[in-house]
Amino acid sequence: MSLSMVILATLLSILFPAVQLGEVKGKYNIGVIDLQLPVKGFEREHVSARILYPCSKNDEDVASVSYLIEETNDQLCAAMMRTAAPPPLRGLDFMLNVWKFAKLPLIRNGKPLDGLNSDTEEQVEGVQGEEQIQKKNGESGKIPMAIYSHGLTGTAVLYSYQTMNLAANGTVVLAIDHTDGSAMGVQHVDGSFHTFDESIGALSLRGKMLEYILARRKQTDYRTREFLAAAESFLELNKKNIRELEDAGISFVGKLKTDDLSAMGHSFGAATALTACGRKSEMFSCCISHDPAIDWVPDDVRRELFNTERVKETEMKYNGGTCGFESGSKKDSPEKRKPGPFYLFGKVVSDETNNSSVHDLDHFFLYSNEFMDKGWGEFKLIAELSRLDLLGLKSRYSEVGYVYKAHHSEFSDSCSTLPLWLARAVGMTGPRNPIETGEEIA
Asked: Three-state DSSP class for 48?
């Protein structure tokens, strides 16, 4: 009996090795805090979030944070296996137990850098406290910011490798868990745990593609309002601290470069970031879109992204994507329709009162080989707009790239956290090792 158990344990350790992400490369140690971020102008009063930020390189308390949040790791693993695993494996939650034991090179509630110049010992005479921080940093020493939106069935934690690398290189990152049912699981401020909503995906399985696409676009609208509300609260942290941070001994007051906030996301998250930039471009310095789910972007921003005059220069066509525009049939061209209203913070805003454009800032679109080969995410049109200098601000820094032999899922941690044999068997990763592609993406 004991021998069989040893053999079984050995076999399981081989089939399900310890979770291994790529090496985080950067100048700084990384601090982390998980919190319920208070927000305004949104249906909920809090957004579940993780903030990662550069810490003093002298802090030695590293590699002590669990990969999953301990309070919800059982629920998240169960939800992941129930929703995302192939049918024969559903219910076998133990297969993800290795996630619970994985550690990340983070400092829980570590002390943030006072600024990117604060790793020097030089002090400014005659001032102290917040004034010392501001004098010492200057504008150039303040820390850039980024807000990250996860993809379908993702969570903030499942994009740890990307967000850790950003923080290690001097960016404060706010990664949020969306509450529209697209997250694999999210804990609310009252302690309740909301799992993935499978009802929308069921529309596609039943062949109701129009209803499916419209439902996803409605989700994007909700996610965008959540994203913008979180971004506003994030920016406010430079002016005033909140109790959730004060209790942990953390403050970002006077340390953040508020005119350098990047909107980022993967897949559904990229659609969210693009929509946020289209509706409130002045809030962001750039938009970084990884394998964007363009079909899920609401009409108003898709129309502006593929503005008739810009598309005409490419000699290509865009008729609204899958199922077209909601305000007309999918055979109509955009120029035959009047722009419809859209929602911002729950209120209808007419196009006459909105001067924001998704092209008012720089863009970086990064595609997987899978999306590029299949022409998803309007790769060809986006690439042609970029080639003709018609993407974002003219003669600036917008560009399009792709990751060679990479699959869509490799932008998240999911491929690295699964055994390589399993990730390849279910088509989540390609011929390259996902740790290698993850390092290239970061």
From this structure: strand
Three-state DSSP class for 293?
coil
DSSP-H helix ranges across 198-257: 199-205, 209-236, 243-246
Mean pLDDT along residues 175-202: 92
Task: List residues bridging with 47 in a β-sheet.
Answer: 37
Read off the pLDDT of residues 307-329 as tens digits, 9 standing for 90 and up. 999 999 999 999 999 989 976 43
Question: Coil, strand or helix: which one is 91?
Answer: coil
Q: Do 281 and 296 touch, CB atoms closer than 8 A?
A: no
Give 143's contacts (C-beta < 8 A, 6+ positions apart). Answer: 53, 54, 112, 113, 115, 116, 170, 171, 172, 252, 255, 256, 257
Residue that the structure tokens 């001994």 belong to: 249
Q: Kindly report the pTM of this predicted structure.
A: 0.86
| CB-based contacts of 395, cutoff 8 Å, min separation 6 | 389
What is the three-state SS of 119-156? CCCCCCCCCCHHHHHHHHHHHHHCEEEEEEECCCCCCC
Distance CA 292, CA 123 (A): 45
Q: What percent of the chain has pLDDT over 90?
A: 59
